[in-house]
Amino acid sequence: MLGEKVHPTPRPASGFAVVAAIVVAAGAAHADPSPDGASLRLPVPEAQRPLTLPRLVLAPEAGFQVDQRPDEGAFGELDVSAAFGITDDLAVHALVAPLQLWTPVGYGGARYGEVNRNFGPGAGVTLRFVRGPVELAADLSGHVFTIPDLSGGSVTPSVLLRVHATDMLRLDVAPAVTFQFATQTTALSTSSANAVRVAVPVTLLGNLTRSFDVGVTTGLTIYDTSDVRSSTDIPAGLLLGYAVPGPHGPVLDVDPFFDFPYFLTPGRTTATNTGQYQLGLTVRGYLYL
Q1: Other Cβ atoms within 10 Å of 241 Cβ, number
Q2: CATH code at 252?
Q3: Residues of the domain holding 59
Q4: In whole angstroms, what is the distance from residue 246 CA to residue 83 CA?
Q5: Residue 171 and residue 266: Cα distance in Å, rounded?
Q6: Does 138 fall in a domain?
Q7: Residue 8 lies in a domain
Q8: Which helix (H) or strand (E) holds 220?
Q9: Contact 237/216 with Cβ under 8 angstroms?
Q10: 159 CB-contact burial (10 Å; exposed 0-12 / middle 13-18 / buried 19+)
Q11: What is the pLDDT averaged over residues 172-194?
């Protein structure tokens, strides 16, 4: 971030209005008066989907991401994970393989466990306790760190709020707090790497057609609550999605995305950071058991 030029850029919240306007226009042309949920186990349109997977639905997923840093280069990562609906309101999920595919020179190269995203494998459980146009759920996840020089793990409780504004438009807010319990080891010393982090991702997503959706992301992140001023950031991103329909619901989701994870940096001398960005593709399948 140091030395980066400041480029005047629209505020990320403005994208919310753009997406909403596009969805409203598309909805007028392609409106389907009966939600998919009335006849399928899982709705095909993303805007209609619930916070938890339906009972006995398995969703394996692969997520590829490139994290480009202005002064260091590109990091490539691949996450292999899966989620399973135990009941319509209770689901479990597991990150089986967080793979670092490549790094710039000096960061250790390929390994099991990622330098920037997921330090190691993890698992969690999601419980939905409010259904309907406004959904509410709680999630508890944990990770074990496997990257060199960092031992320990983390626990993340979060609250998931989903508002189905219409059959074609939804809003997601998911405040989370991560408690990291870790030890950093170098050739010369061993020190505590304990930390508390806060994230409040916000996503506005709309379906332009039954299968195609578009969305914008923003929110707030505090990487270290012991230094709120210099570690608070506001991200901004764009996501797209295409769902392949099947007899019981979607059988495949293909979701590319692009974002600036530290788009606004209010506590630093440089107000914006567009030099660091992330782009990737998530592919998710659905098996109806």
Answers
A1: 20
A2: 2.40.160.40
A3: 14-288
A4: 19
A5: 25
A6: yes
A7: no
A8: strand 212-222
A9: yes
A10: middle
A11: 93
What local confidence, expressed as pLDDT, does residue 71 receive?
85
Residue 270: its pLDDT value, please?
85
CB-based burial of residue 197 (10 Å sphere; 0-12 exposed, 13-18 middle, 19+ buried)?
A: middle
Contact 111, 142 (CB under 8 A): no
Identity of the residue numbered 120: G
| Residue with the two structure tokens 């950093």 | 184
Of 280 and 14, the structure prediction assigns the larger pLDDT to: 280
d(CA 168, CA 233) in angstroms, rounded, equals 30
Q: Give every CB contact of residue 285 below 8 A, 6+ residues apart in sequence.
A: 59, 60, 61, 251, 252, 253
> Comparing C-alpha atoms, which of 18, 28, 48, 27 is closest to residue 208?
27
User: Distance between terminal CA atoms of the chain?
Assistant: 48
Report d(CA 177, CA 57) in Å as an integer: 28
Q: How confident is the model at residue 14 (pLDDT cuts 50, 70, 90)?
A: low
Q: What is the pTM of this model?
A: 0.86
Phi, psi (degrees; rounded to nearest 5) at 38: -75, -25
Report residue 24 as tokens: 């409203």
**Count of structural domains, the chain:** 1
